[in-house]
């Protein structure tokens, strides 16, 4: 069990240091921003908290004082929670109200630090076994110390959670909105840590052994800190993730359009601005070219498109009206390709118009529509 607890501290510490390194990368650009400086302080306390946790698991003394690492860990956790509350205020509240609330949280943090330090030494913290600070061992002063620490962690979790929802709805900044939502998830998990830790303390005081369930507190703590680290650094890594997700979406669309584009290109090679192939690193450009070339190839087919052709029967039962229309377009394209190869122009041809007046100025909608047509095109080909 101690191995799992140590591993949880190490995971929390590594995620904290990764978050700090991520934010330090922006120090030259953002140092003058007070919210950024507060965030750095928050991450420093976060790193110190879990570093001391790992130290406490590996040694009974720190700087020659028994259990000092535990006290430093708890005091750092208090400072970390207070500074996290302050950074939230700096993100979403302006003016005198933010200053007043910041002052209140700083005073509260100092008072809690003094209280925990006094209780630690009055309870003879340096002379006790380290295990006493996991369970309290039924000692009133140690129990008071531990419960005071849990309250110092639980209250900020509640206040931050209550603020994240309204603030996320108020802001127009998409990145900040996502960060606040992720922060609300983090504080819920950390509140579960507080509950699990309280259960551990009270059951031990009552002489109840809950066995392996004691490890739940460490698991909630590590998970909550990982999510919290992600939320506090979201503005740094989210644009990269968003760009990667967009690349993946564009690449999937690019590949999905290939069978339709290939047949149109074979029928009208002049639609391609460049020879086929090349790198897909510039997928945005290539997807635009593929959409344009599909449109150009379709226009070349207009004299061969028979209006009477209907591929709705190939659509799945219960398909949406848009999907049914995609099957009509796909069937007409496949028929027109055959007609062009044979040189047969139908009497009722579609020599004007476009894909049923689809808005080609809205590129994402255009890609989505052509992807449906390409999907229907493959199914019509299999059915034929």
Automatic annotation (TrEMBL):
Pfam families: DUF6545. The keyword Disulfide bond does not apply. Keywords: Membrane, Transmembrane, Transmembrane helix. Residues 246-378 form the DUF6545 domain. InterPro entries: DUF6545, MAB_1171c-like. The chain crosses the membrane at residues 6-26, 38-56, 68-92, 104-122, 142-161, 182-206, 212-245. The keyword Nuclease does not apply. This is DUF6545 domain-containing protein.
């Amino acid at each position: 069990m101690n191995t799992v607890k140590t591993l949880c501290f190490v995971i929390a510490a590594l995620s904290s240091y990764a978050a700090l390194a991520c934010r330090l990368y922006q120090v030259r650009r953002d140092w003058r921003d007070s919210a950024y400086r507060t965030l750095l302080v928050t991450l420093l306390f976060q790193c110190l908290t879990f570093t001391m946790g790992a130290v406490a698991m590996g040694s009974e003394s720190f700087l020659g004082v028994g259990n000092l690492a535990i006290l430093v860990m708890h005091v750092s956790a208090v400072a970390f929670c207070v500074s996290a509350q302050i950074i939230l205020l700096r993100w979403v509240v302006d003016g005198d109200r933010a200053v007043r609330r910041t002052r209140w949280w700083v005073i509260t943090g100092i008072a809690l630090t003094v209280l925990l330090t006094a209780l630690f030494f009055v309870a003879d913290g340096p002379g006790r076994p380290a295990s006493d600070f996991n369970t309290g061992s039924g000692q009133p002063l140690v129990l008071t110390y531990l419960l005071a620490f849990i309250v110092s962690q639980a209250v900020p979790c509640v206040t931050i959670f209550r603020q994240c929802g309204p603030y996320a709805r108020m802001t127009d900044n998409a990145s900040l909105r996502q960060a606040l939502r992720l922060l609300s998830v983090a504080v819920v998990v950390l509140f579960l840590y507080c509950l699990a830790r309280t259960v551990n303390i009270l059951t031990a005081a009552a002489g109840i052994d809950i066995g392996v369930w004691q490890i739940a507190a460490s698991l909630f703590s590590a998970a909550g800190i990982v999510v919290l680290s992600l939320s506090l650094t979201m503005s740094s890594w989210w644009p990269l993730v968003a760009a990667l997700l967009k690349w993946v979406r564009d690449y999937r669309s690019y590949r999905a359009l290939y069978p339709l584009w290939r047949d149109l290109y074979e029928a009208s090679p002049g639609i391609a601005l460049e020879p086929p192939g090349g790198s897909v690193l510039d997928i945005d450009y290539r997807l635009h070219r593929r959409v344009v070339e599909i449109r150009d190839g379709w226009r070349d087919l207009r004299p061969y498109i028979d209006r009477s052709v209907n591929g709705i029967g190939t659509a799945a039962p219960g398909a949406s009206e848009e999907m049914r229309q995609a099957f009509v377009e796909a069937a007409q394209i496949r028929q027109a390709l055959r007609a062009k190869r044979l040189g047969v122009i139908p009497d009722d041809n579609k020599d004007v118009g476009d894909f049923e007046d689809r808005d080609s100025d809205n590129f994402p909608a255009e890609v989505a529509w052509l992807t449906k047509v390409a999907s229907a095109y493959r199914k019509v080909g299999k059915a034929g």
